[in-house]
Amino acid sequence: MLKNLFKLWRRNEPKLPETANEEVLLKVIDPARLPKHIAIIMDGNGRWANQRGMPRAYGHRAGVESLRDIVKLCSELKIQYLTCYAFSTENWKRPPKEIEALMSLLVEYLNKEIDELCANNVRVNAIGRTEEFPYDVQKTLNMAINKSKNNKGLVLNLALNYGGRTELVEAIKLLGRDIKEGQLSPEAIDENVVQRYLYTSNFPDPDLLIRPSGDFRISNFLLWQLAYTEFWLTPVLWPDFRRIHLLQALVDYQCRERRFGGLKET
Ligand code: IPE
Ligand code: IPE
Ligand code: MG
Question: Is 157 a catalytic residue?
Answer without folding.
Answer: no
